Structure formats: C-alpha cells, structure tokens
Amino acid sequence: MEFSISLPKGLSLLRRLPNTLAEHELPPRLIMLLTRLNQHFCYLDEQIRELDKDMASQFAEDDLGTLLLTIPCVGPITASLLLAEMGDGKQYGGSRDFAASVGLVPRQYSTGGRANNLVRKEAFEAAVLLRIARCDSHRGAGQGPH
C-alpha cells in the first residue's frame, strides 16, 4: 500500500519519524508498527553509543591503542580489531609477518595458510578511505588525483 509520503533515506528519517507519523494520516496499525520499530532503533542506537564510549575510554588508557588511532582512516573499531589480532606484536618478526598473518601480502608458511579475513577487509577499507581522502585533498589544492 502506498501513502504518497516522500521520506529521505538514512538516519535522518529515523530521527524524524515520530514527527512524520504525527503529520500524516496513516492506519493506526501501521503507526503502531513503525513506532515500535523506531523505539527499537533508538534503543540500539543508544547501546552503540555506550559501546563507542567504552571503547574510547579503553583506548585512552592504552598506549598501543592510542598509537593505532593515529593511523589515517583507522578508527576505534579497526584499532580494536588490530589489537585483538596482534596483541603486543612481539610474536611477529616484522611488519611483513603481521601483514602475511592477515592475508595482505603473499602467503608465508608461518600463518599455516589461514588469514584473518576480517582484519584484511578492515585494512583494505581503511586503505580505500585513505586513498579517497588523499585524492580529495589533492583536488582541493588544484593538483588533481594521483
């Protein structure tokens, strides 16, 4: 069923949903369902905010975590994933050994052929974001992408 209501995509819709529901005449059952879903979203959003605060306070107390956060495009989630994977890093002979353990460079036999795909995915996404940011900064300076 269509109600001819134009709504934006994304979080802005969810934050404005109670006002939007009040402005339009909709079936009571639909309003009840959307209100319940919105309340659940608000609950989950608050939980995520609390977890983000906890993670930020943990990094404030951890020298290695704070250092990881200085890497461009590495935020608290990627940094915590890296910390969980590498620990203090003493088990790696060098950066290449770590890169091989997460599958970023050609296989080394020390990994047993098993790479941590989640760390690899996060590292790839951080690299893509860094590349985009660098291209944008070059375009802003009138130099064009490299």
Which descriptors would you attach to this protein?
146 residues, mainly alpha, 2 domains, elongated
Q: Would you count the extended β strands for me? A: 0
Strand coverage percent = under 5%
Q: How many helices in DSSP terms?
A: 6
Parts with pLDDT < 50 across at least 5 consecutive residues = 141-146
Helix content: 55-70%
* Terminal CA distance: 49 Å
Largest sheet: none
What is the total domain count?
Answer: 2
Q: Gyration radius, to the nearest Å?
A: 22 Å
Order of helices and strands: HHHHHH
Q: State mean pLDDT (0 to 100 scale).
A: 77
The outline comes out as elongated
Structure, explained:
- The N and C termini lie far apart (49 Å).
- The protein contains 6 helices and no strands.
- It folds into 2 domains: 13-57; 63-140, no CATH class.
- The protein is 64% helix and 0% strand.
- It is mainly alpha-helical and 146 residues long.
What is the fold's blueprint, element by element?
Layout: H1 11-23, H2 28-60, H3 63-68, H4 76-86, H5 95-101, H6 117-140
Helix pairs in contact: 1-2, 4-6
Provide a concise account of the structure shown:
The protein has 146 residues and is mostly helical. It contains six helices and no strands. The longest helix has 33 residues, at 28-60.
